[in-house]
Every structure is written in structure tokens, then in C-alpha cells.
Amino acid sequence: MHFQSLMNSNVLHFRRPRRLHRMVRNSILFLMLCVLGATSAQAQLLNYADSGRPEAPGLELLQEEPHDLIFFTEKAGGGWVKTRLLELPRREMPASPSGSLKFSIVGVEQQEFVAKWTDIQNIDFWETRLERETAERIKAGDFVGAYPFLSVLIRDYPARPGMRQLRTEFLWRDAGRRAKNREFGASLAMLEELRRYAPEYKTQTVLTAIGALTDQLMEQLVSDGKLELGQQLLARLEQEYRGQNLSSIKKWNAQFLSMAEDKRDLALAALEAKNYRDARKFSRESIFLKPDIEGGTELVRKVDQIYPLVNVGVLQTATVLDPTRLDNWAARRAGRLLYRVLFEMQGAGPEGGEYEFIFGDTEQSPDRQRFSMFIEPERLPEPLNKVDGFYLADVLAERVQSESPTYFSPWAAAVQAIGLDGPKRIDCILRRPNVLPSALIQVTVDGSWFGGEPGSPTGDYRRDVVEGDVVRYVLKGEPRTELQPREIVEIRTESAAEGVSKLLQGEVDVLDQLFPADAVRLSSNRKVRVVNYPLPSVHMLVPCSDHEYLADKTFRRALVYGTNREDILNGELLESLEVPGCRVLSGPFPAGLEDNDPLGYAYDQSIAPRNYEPRLAKLLMTMTTKQMESEASRKKEKPPELKPIRLAFPPENLSRIACEAIRSQWQLLGLEIELVELPVGRAFPDPGTADIAYVSAAVWEPIIDARRVLGPEGMAGSTDQLVGLGLRRLEESKNWRDARDRLLDLHAIAHHELPVLPLWQLVDSYAYSRELLGVGSDIVSLYQNAEKWRLSQ
């Protein structure tokens, strides 16, 4: 076949009609159509030539449309054409061809050609080319290059006669290459795939290689301290290769048994020396290494019976101990171990929180203007049974006096008089009906209430030693039950993922806070129980300095528009998993976990969160700058400089990940952002050290917490007049309808004025080993039932 392009007339010339003729009678130009936008010469190069062979495209072949190549005999003029896939029986050259072959040239639309079989020397079929490319690359050791060709063959031509051999050769030889590069995991995966796909292929050789590889992989895992992964691998090998005499199984079973026996001996020695902490540690490590080790379970139970101890994995250890703290998770958690609160929140009800008066019982009059407390010392443990009504009345009165360090303005605004009716009854007369007076008096009870030192604990535990990232809380009196933990040990982990690993390995018994995605994955583990806290945390950015731009609400609005909160929440924090209740917020209050959830009584669902609109954010930033320049010019002053913004966050990975994402998005707006990691145990920066802080707040009772978040003495320190008016009107509410309506108004004000920048709410969860009993499933704080914890026997 001989093609010739006549450039001036743009016609296709056939030297001999017998070699190739068109079925369409009229000659229509097609060279310019072969490749869109290409010249005739380029088209000729890509689609046909009158001599030689097409240039090998390499990996780019897979980017081309599937095609066949027809090569013509020298007698017919030579050359080749690139055609659409030919419709031939079994996709092969006929044994004794006769007549003509119809075909379409790639790039030449709506035209059909025909050639005599006697003029065709050979056809290089598409799938044959793929097989040849694959085989050549495998032979050359280019497995990365061979893989895409093999993938296409497996997808489109799985029944080809040579496919099984081609695929097995690829798996076997690539596994060998990876093993030489010490990629033991990948090499093992390929050999096991080979064994599943073609069990007849070098059966004993493959099995021997798997044994050697698993031995090296186990060695690597144990050396790296990844014992859990090693045990999982060993258990899988025992199950899948039962009866196959895999050498590594016997070796590593013996190895784990030896390590477990060493740990058991250490545990026994520690137990004899009455070093119960080490005895517990080594006995658990022993059965972790070999669950069926002789006497292992009995030893663990014996140690737990003598000295019950619970290890708790935490993202932050506490440096401040305050069970009423709004913005500090660690302080709130650990504070509950040491201190009791006058009114402790036990959960959420249809009308706000449900509170327990730790000294007895309460009663509110039908008109909600008298709130009575009844002290019942005969039912209380020490030291709570030592309190009397006179002292408690004084404490309540001090919170009304503006000069007192314990002054609380909402309580002062609510109370008209405090009276005693004997030593066991206190009556609080309220200025107006109050919907939830118990929420106003969440006062920490310390030892000074009972004649002890100020700040001394009133809970069951006291803080003992701090050893780096380990803090021990020791039972300070006689145990309430034989199995009550003598110690609760908090162990700080670098990340939530590390905490999950420690829980699965038995190094900790409880995790106090999980990454949402980890909670979803861990919930399927039968050895662990994952439970959601009933109240979500509200995440926000709180301005905390005199940064002149952050003081401008237009600039704060620009920051909200410039933050892709949906992307950070769903992509970074939830890892694209569906976690009900986690959502972006438009205000500083929780939205509830589902529609019409009473937990969301302060949240106006009609106010949608602001969308991510970076162009609008840039415009608002420009407006802020122009307004400041205009104001400075009017006052004949120098306009303020847009200084770098220091963004502070607690030292745990969820806040760190969120703030790194926020920084990246704000930098796209042209802002200079400095991340400030707070010291361990701190949740809010010291004055002058940061400009805005990432806060995870327990806004569980908005009717009270609104002032703690937004008020001039609260986190935001807002002096905005609209915010102040909204807070005052809220505190004057006479019934729940008023309270809810005014909270919705306050939500709208906060959405407009932005005293804080709302981000999202997260449904927090905790996890614990099923061997730990008494934790509870509807607790607002991890240690709410700590005195009832017990390890199963």
C-alpha cells in the first residue's frame, strides 16, 4: 500500500487502485482530519505512513484510543495504517485469507477503506501489543512500567490465552524485586496474591518464599515495637496456612511465648516485692504477647485484686484542676477526680441540664421564685457530711457581693434574699421567675468548706506524682468497695492514633477522647466499647488581644468567609466519614445532635453558616483597610498596620490539624499567620502571647454559659453593646419560652457581630476495654462514675 499526500490539492493519491480503494465514490480530503488541529504531515506520522514502522510510543500508548496496525507488503507498496479495532473472528489473522478487508483509519471520520488480503503482510492487534509491552517490561525488570499495561489487559482481555502466565510472571518477579529492596509487606502481598490466583504455579517454591518473607517481616515488626501488628500477622498466618508447615509460624509462636514468659517472670518478681504498678504492667504485657500463656490470666486477676489500677490515655494532662472549666477539657476531666461541685451536671433533659445537689435535695416553687436546698448529712460520705446550712448560705451570699472574689453577676441579678430555715434548709428568694437556678451555682467544693486547707480535694482521689507525660491520681482514703481503683493513671499520648494503639495493646484501659474517625473505626472492635458523650463540644476561634484588625467585625467576617470550614471538618477531622451530629455552626451554641433536639435549644436553625467565599473575604479585607485609612486620615494619624496574626491552639493533634488547615487558607488571603502551640494542660493563651485562640468549649448550658463565652468577663471579653443587651435580656427570662426566644436573638447578634468566630461542633466519644466495668454510658465527664469503676475478675 502506498499513501501519498499531495499538499497543494489536499487529495489522497492511490498509485494502484488494486492496492487500496475507497468504497465511497467521491474522493474527499481526509488528511487534515486525522488529528484535530494537526498538520497533514503530523497526521500522516500518527495515522499512516508509506514506509517503515510507527514509532514506539511507550507508556503514552495507553493514552491513545485502542487501535490495530495493518502492515502492507512490499509488493503492494509497503507502509502501514492505524485502524479502529478490526472485527475479525477471534481477533486474529485468517489462516487462509481471501477477498478484501474493510477498515476505518483512526482520525478519519465517516470514511471506510478496503484492502485486498493479498496486499496485507501482517496485523498487529491492540491486545497483542499490550501483551508484548508487558512481557518486555517484565523481562527488563520495569515492573512500574509493566503494571498499567497489565491492568488494562486484566480489565479488558481477562480470557486471553497467555494472560495467566503473564500475570503470574509479573507477581513472582516483582515480589522478588521488592524483597531485595526490603519491602517485605508489599512483597508478601504479591506472593499471597500469586498463591490465590495461580496455586499451581511453583507451589512449594512460592510457599518457601512466603515463609522466608513472613519471618523477615515479623523480625521487622518486633524490632520496631509493632507487636500488635506482629500478632495479627501471626494469627492470620496460622489460620490461612494451616497444615502447610510454614516455617515462620512455629518460630514466631515460640518467640512470642519466650517474650511472654520473660514478662510473666518480671511480673511475679514485682508482685513479690509489692511493686504493684510494675506487676500490673508486666502481667498485662505477658498476656498481650501470648494470650494463652499458662497462668497469665490468673496473674492479671490476682494483681488487679490486690491493687486495682486503671490507666487512662489522654490527649492532654491537666495542669489546672477545675471541674467547672468551660474551655479546658483536661481541667474539667481531672478536676472531677479531686473536687465535687455544689450542683453537678449529670446529663441533659428536655429543659436544659439535669443537676444533682451533692449535699441533698432541692425544690422549686410552682412560680419559680423560691429555690430551696435540703441538706441530708446522714446520707453523705466524708467529708461531705460535715457541711452545714450556715456555711453554705454564706457561700451563696458571697457570690452576690460585688467586692467578693467569687462574685457572679447572673446569680447576683437573680437572687433577692437568702434565708435559713434551720441548719438543713436554705431558701433562695428570686427577683423574678428563673428557669434553671441550679445552673447559676456550679461552685467547686474544696477542703476549706470542712475546716481543711483551701484547695484540698473533696473527691475520692488526690494528685500524686507527675512523671513526664504520666500523672497519677491516688485514692486518698479507704476504698468504697474492694475493687475501687487505688490509682487512676493518666498517660498523655502524642496523638489520638497513638492512644488507640495503646488501648488495643492493653497499655491503657480507657481513652478519654477519640478522633471522630477513630471512633467510627474502633467501634467494630469486639474487645473495646466506644461511647459518645451526650453533649457535643463547640469549636470556635476567640480573639484574645488588641490586634486592631481583629477588633474590626468586618475583618472578622472576612476571616469567616475565608475559612473553608466544611472542607476542614469533613476532610481533615472526619476523614470523609459520616459522623452524625458533627456539623459547621453559625453561632457559639451547640446545634443539637439531630433535628428538634432539645440540646439545641439556643441554636437558631434558620441562620445558615456563612459559605466559603475567598473573593468576598478579600473584598471585606480591602474594605477594612480603606475604612481604617480613612479614619486615620480624618484624625491625622498613621493608619494601623496589618500585623501577623498569632493563632494559638492546645497541644493535641485535633486542634493542631484544624489550625494548620486554617493557617493555609488564611495565607491564601495574603495574611501572615503564626501558629502558637500552648503548653501542656493549657487551653487559652496568656495575655500578649497570641491574637486569636482555637477553643473547644463545653457550652452545655447556653442559658448560663452565654455570658461565660460572650460576656466582658468571659472568653471573648466582648464589650459590644448589642451582645451586652442580649445577655441582660436573657438573664431576665421568666420562663423557658422567654429564655429560648432570647437565646435565639443572642445567636443572631453573635452571628452578625462575631465576638467569636464559630467553626463546628464535634460529637466527642470515649473508649474503654470491656474488662473495665462501671464506666457508664450516659456520662458528661469521664470520671463521673470513677468511684464505681472495677476491673472484671
TrEMBL record:
Pfam families in the cross-refs: SBP_bac_5 (PF00496)
Residues covered by the Solute-binding protein family domain: 495-678
A single MF term (Gene Ontology): peptide transmembrane transporter activity
Top-level lineage group: Bacteria
InterPro entries: SBP_5, SBP_5_dom
SUPFAM superfamilies: Periplasmic binding protein-like II
Alphabetical GO biological process terms: peptide transport
Protein name: Solute-binding protein family 5 domain-containing protein
Organism for this UniProt entry: Rhodopirellula islandica
